[in-house]
Input
Amino acid sequence: MSEPSGIHAVDYDPSWPRQAATAIDALRAAAPGLFLKIEHIGSTTVPGLAAKPVIDLMTAVHDLGHAAFHHNVVAAGTGPGE
Output
């Protein structure tokens, strides 16, 4: 069986936590007051672990109706490669 195409893992990058913090700050600035919490999640949070080089974030909002107003900001993304 061949490996699926498009999967790419790299060695751990110590800049990933900083990249996540930058993306979180950018989201908060782009949609002030929308997010109750934004967390850096996934394999890039584990020091020393090879991972796909994509910073994954998970957000919490008080009401999804408020999120719809900011859809263009959130859908555009803020991270590398977005």
The CA atoms of residues 18 and 24 lie 10 Å apart. Residues 78-82 have pLDDT under 50 and may be disordered. The two ends are 31 Å apart (CA to CA). The beta strands are 35-41, 56-61.
